[in-house]
Each structure stands twice: as structure tokens, then as C-alpha cells.
Write a structure and sequence with these properties.
The chain is an alpha+beta fold. It has one domain: Alpha-D-Glucose-1,6-Bisphosphate, Chain A, domain 4 (2-Layer Sandwich), CATH 3.30.530.20. Helix content is about 30%, strand content about 35%. The chain has 4 helices and 7 strands, in the order βααββββββαα. The strands form 2 sheets. It has a 5-stranded antiparallel β-sheet, covered by helices on one side. Strands 2-3 form a two-stranded antiparallel sheet. Helix 3 packs across helix 4. The two termini are about 20 Å apart.
Length: about 160
């Protein structure tokens, strides 16, 4: 099994404190990533249950680094190492925005690389929607999100060629 290193960058029109809360508050994480149990401290749990993916095992994680409003590292059983970095940017809805850089290091067969990339692109879209007040309706994920996920998958597969 090979290793995959992906880096994603997104700009949000909300201050870092708002984006930060969406990464660490279990109710908010449940609105964009997966149903979550989060203990917001180094060594704390960061467990995710994939309610929209039948048969996918729960992801167990531990927070390995935590610097408020700047950095969150989570080591997981199935998604590898996740590194979220936040930086304040000018502009935004109230004079400040946030640049989020997410680095993902995961052991995965190369044939699944495009799928992993599509999953994360869709997940970051979902984070943006949550920040604008629209959490994921997990019961209707396929109806609401499948088309954009498929487009991300197609784009990722083309980019890999």
C-alpha cells in the first residue's frame, strides 16, 4: 500500500475563530465532516461515524497538536494524519477571513487516490456550506452531494493522468 500526501487550500469569508469552532465543536463537525465525538485537547478523541456511508467503520482519532486558532493535527485510524492550519486573511464578511490549509497523509492504494481527493474536496465544500449556515443533511447526502462529488472525482482522475 502506498502513501498519499494531499494538500488543500480554501479561503473562507469568516474570521479564524468561526472556522476554528467548526473544526473542534462536535456539533459543528457533525454538520460538515461526520457525526463526531471531539475532546478538544491534545490527546483527546476525534472520532467520526460515517452516517451516510453504509458499512464504513467508525474512524477513531486522537488530537496530536492543538494551537488555538492556528493549528490542529489529528491522527486517525482510517484517514491518516490530518493537519489543519488556519491563517487570518484580509476581507471577509466582517473584515477578516480565513485561509485553511489541510494536509492529509494516508496509506492508500494508488487506484483510490482520486476518490480520496474527491472525498476531501467535497468535505471542504460542506465545511463552507456549514459556515454559511447550511449543515449537511446526512439522510439526503446522495441527493444533495453526489453530483458535486462525482465532478470532483472526474476532475481528480483527469488531474492524475
Amino acid at each position: 500500500m502506498g502513501g498519499l500526501h494531499l494538500v488543500f487550500e480554501r479561503d473562507f469569508e469568516f474570521a479564524p475563530v468561526i472556522v476554528w469552532d467548526a473544526l473542534l465543536d462536535a456539533d459543528l463537525v457533525s454538520g460538515w465532516l461526520a457525526e463526531a465525538v471531539v475532546e478538544p485537547e491534545v490527546g483527546g478523541a476525534y472520532n467520526l461515524r460515517w452516517v451516510h456511508r453504509v458499512g464504513q467503520p467508525e474512524t477513531l482519532g486522537r488530537i496530536t497538536a492543538l494551537h488555538p486558532l492556528e493549528l490542529l493535527h489529528v491522527d486517525t485510524t482510517t484517514m491518516g494524519l490530518l493537519r489543519f492550519e488556519l491563517a487570518e486573511t484580509a476581507g471577509g464578511a466582517r473584515g477578516a477571513g480565513t485561509r485553511l490549509v489541510l494536509a492529509v497523509d494516508v496509506a492508500v492504494e494508488p487506484v483510490f487516490a482520486a476518490r480520496v481527493k474527491a472525498d476531501w474536496l467535497t468535505t471542504l465544500d460542506q465545511l463552507g456550506d456549514l459556515l454559511r449556515g447550511h449543515p449537511v443533511d446526512w439522510a439526503n447526502w446522495e441527493r444533495d452531494r453526489q453530483e458535486s462529488w462525482s465532478q470532483h472525482l472526474e476532475d481528480a482522475a483527469e488531474g492524475a493522468r
